[in-house]
Design a protein that fits this description.
28% strand, alpha/beta, globular, 9-stranded mixed beta sheet, single chain, 11 strands, two-stranded antiparallel ribbon
């Protein structure tokens, strides 16, 4: 757990409810990345029967990892994050959701030197890794000058650097879950190559007629099996912001995404 961090400032945060109100998360009201739908979709790829240790890489205030902890009670969860403000909020969110026995935080620069990272995030220690990395390449978008920029813009090394860390953290045949932007299929496949196989790729469409704006991927470390593209998840009906039944069930925590069996294989 992080130590000697001052408590979050309530005036600078909002309390947001997920999973039909079962998960309550404090996060910055403005000026930082705010977790939402992506985190809950990512958590839904982990099956309820999953066991072992799950590491949430770049956990922010902990939304995805905490959602996994509620979904899969046999997992221990480690929230790995470098931002001190996010870590303070993650600590508070662990306590707020009564998960201190199973969830902890780790202050770590994931893309920094491997020796320093592995001193606190041991190599080949996790059975599962989830990852919601920044989506955009530098100069591809106008990055916010605020702390949001680090959450949306990939640092040097791109997605490959994140999946290198994921592979180092996972046990052999451990399982990765990743959410990325809809146009990033080529980058995803390139970063998986040589590290992960048996990838199951599920496109997420805002509406049936729209291109996918997110890709959710599960994969197995060390597998040589070819990737599969699964049926897409459509969020909204035409002309409405209401959620369709399948998406609504996932976002309320009543159903998983069916991206493949995430139980580690021998």
């Amino acid at each position: 757990m992080t130590q000697d961090l001052p408590p979050p400032d309530p005036a600078a945060t909002s309390l947001d409810r997920f999973l039909d109100g079962r998960l309550v998360v404090a996060q910055p009201a403005k000026g930082h990345h705010r977790a939402g739908l992506d985190a809950i979709l990512l958590a839904a790829t982990v099956p309820e029967a999953a066991e072992g240790l799950l590491v949430d890489l770049g956990a922010g205030v902990g939304t995805a990892g905490l959602a996994v902890a509620l979904r899969a009670p046999r997992l221990a969860v480690r929230l790995a994050e470098r931002d001190a403000k996010a870590l303070r909020l993650a600590e508070a969110n662990i306590e707020r959701n009564h998960l201190a026995g199973r969830v902890e935080t780790v202050a770590v620069d994931l893309l920094g030197p491997a020796k320093a990272r592995e001193a606190v995030l041991r190599r080949e220690s996790a059975t599962h890794v989830i990852c919601n990395p920044p989506y955009f390449a530098p100069r591809a978008v106008r990055a916010s000058p605020s702390a949001r920029a680090g959450a949306h813009v990939l640092a040097e090394g791109g997605l490959d650097a994140w999946l290198r860390v994921a592979a180092a953290t996972l046990v052999p045949h451990g399982r990765l879950s990743l959410i990325f932007e809809g146009g990033g299929l080529g980058e995803i496949l390139g970063a998986l190559a040589g590290r992960f196989g048996a990838a199951a790729i599920r496109p997420v469409h805002p509406r049936a007629e729209a291109p996918a704006h997110r890709l959710i991927v599960t994969a197995t470390k060390g597998s040589r099996a070819r990737p599969l593209v699964l049926p897409g998840l459509v969020l909204h009906p035409a002309g409405s912001n209401a959620y369709l039944a399948e998406a609504d069930s996932v976002l309320r925590g009543r159903a998983g995404l069916g991206c493949g069996d995430l139980t580690p294989v021998p």
